[in-house]
Write a structure and sequence with these properties.
CATH topology: Porin
CATH superfamily: monomeric porin ompg
Largest sheet: 12 strands, antiparallel, barrel
């Protein structure tokens, strides 16, 4: 699958939608973590995105974040359908400054009250050789369960537990699959957006097992 083909498919999913809305977002964080593992070498990162959605539930968008000087940027392209309590979609992770690092995930989530269960599957990756011990490759799975609650005065809290199940786990005698937990405390700051204080911890198999505390600021307009 080529990036251009996937982007075209995403555009077709939302084309012709009536009563559509376009929304932009910007953000910064003291440490860009993805599923409990830092992608910015525990340094600050900036991000921005653009989302297109319709009343029918279809949506598409793109999001970009800086990582490290060596790894460059991450650019995501995604599209899906969200209605009532469920969300289904596909996302393409594109790394313009890296070789053979791009991959695609199909994801889904279901919310029941304060709980949200999610799963993502990697059907395609530029890395096919399981002996290479590279993530992410075809066959990878990610599961998570999150619980959220609204507090007073614009505060909210979310707790997440997740498990990254790599297809190449155990290859060469090395365990790579790992679990992680994260606690987010968010405060609405009016025209300044939302401030989130986060505490994250991943198991030793992740290679990034030190507890991480980081602060993020995001704003949509």
């Amino acid at each position: 699958m080529k990036k251009t083909n996937l982007v075209l498919a995403m555009c077709l999913m939302v084309s012709g939608s009536a009563n559509a809305a376009l929304e932009a977002n910007i953000g910064t964080t003291s440490n860009y973590l993805f599923r409990g593992v830092t992608l910015s070498d525990k340094e600050a990162a900036v991000s921005g995105g653009l989302d297109y959605s319709s009343e029918s539930g279809r949506y598409a968008g793109t999001w970009m974040s800086t990582m490290t000087s060596a790894n460059g940027e991450e650019v995501d392209f995604y599209a899906g359908f969200s209605k009532d309590d469920y969300d289904l979609g596909v996302i393409y992770y594109y790394y313009p400054d890296q070789t053979d690092a791009d991959y695609t995930e199909i994801y889904g989530s279901y919310t029941m009250g304060a709980l949200t269960a999610s799963m993502a599957y990697t059907p395609w990756s530029q890395v096919d050789d399981t002996a290479a011990q590279e993530s992410f490759i075809k066959g990878d799975l990610y599961y998570s369960l999150a619980a959220s609650a609204e507090l007073s005065d614009g505060w909210g809290v979310t707790g997440t537990i997740g498990y990254m199940d790599f297809e190449d786990d155990g290859v060469g005698g090395t365990d790579t699959s790992y679990a992680h937990v994260q606690l987010d405390l968010t405060k609405t700051a009016g025209e300044f957006g939302d401030v989130t204080f986060s505490l994250s911890k991943a198991s030793a198999e992740s290679g990034d097992a030190d507890p991480a505390f980081f602060v993020s600021l995001s704003k949509s307009f």
